[in-house]
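G., the chain you wanted modeled:
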Amino acid sequence: SETESEFYKTSLTRSGTENIVNIGDIIRMNDDIGRTNIKASMQMVFSMPLLYQIDNLADPCYDPVGCTGNRLDADFNLICCGFNPIANLNKAIQRCADNDPPTVERLLPTSIASSLAVLSDEELIGGCVLVDLGAGVTNIAIYQDKLLVWAGVLPMGSNLITNDIVEGCSIPRVQAEQLKVNWGNAIPDPTTKEHYLVIEGNKNRKETFISQYNLARIINARVEEIATFVLKYIYEFELLNRLHYGIILTGGGANLNGITDLFKQVTGLDCRKGNSADVIANAKDEQLRKPEYATAIGLVRSGFYSIDIRENMHAEETREYIERYYSDQYQSNPIPRQVAKKANAERVQQKEQAPTPPPPKRNPFSSFAESIKSRLLDSPDDDSTNY
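Predicted structure as tokens:
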């Protein structure tokens, strides 16, 4: 619930006769924005440039590489998160293996990870809102013209719906969750007023009868509140008439019956349930098609693709620039041969004297990760993953 968008501006003045913007200029601007001072209690986890402007003369452009100019300005959308959630996440990852814990390469917000699994290029260009309905929170990301306009977290999730059922029906939480999953509906149907659901009792509690219509009314109130907050964020950015692909629901809460119809009623926008089948090699696997797996699939896919299509367009140029840059750095500051020889001898000696480590424990998540990876990568004929 501490994730939020922060907007910052940076500029780059270029000198010399060569005034064509190249990928190195973009990388330097990204490095500069990475050193930006943000709120003391927050940490930047993701950044995305919005529009660029060259020499303050032309209209803002989406991709300035190849354009001519001396001064380059850009607006960045920085996704920031509180330090405590990040610290807790790092601790959980470190506990996955005692001897050789995995390293965290980078952090990715849930809404952006899910976007990589369920959104198409057409939806990113035409404008859409991704709503990831989790158990504790709802993650929201708004896209327009291929840009991440805003991302944030609404501190309301599916657990609140279950809590409402517990309070409204006076039943234990476990049974309330079962009612929501098996019989819940976001839109009350008057024809179900006479339909009653039986909650079995035990030696300490009598059986309970609950109207299916009243159950739907309880669910409807909370889901309508969540949809209203989503609409509020859309109004703040004046995008109501520019989101041509409407709302895409994902996460476990998207399985609730009638939820897409209720979002349509509240927001006036088209709404569909997010499906990750387009980016899975074996799209017939019904388990992975479920919306609750969208974030996990998006995280795997983030190692190969970026939500920013410009990064995919210039991936080869970026790789060549970074290799050339680090190669120049190494040649300009070579390691003395004697120092390198001594360091190598010390490493060999330490390795020979080190005790034999015990066999590593099996990572409990390895089988799940390999399963997703095989479905994503093992099909050479699947070209739907090309951004």
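The chain has a mean pLDDT of 82.

Shout if anything looks off.
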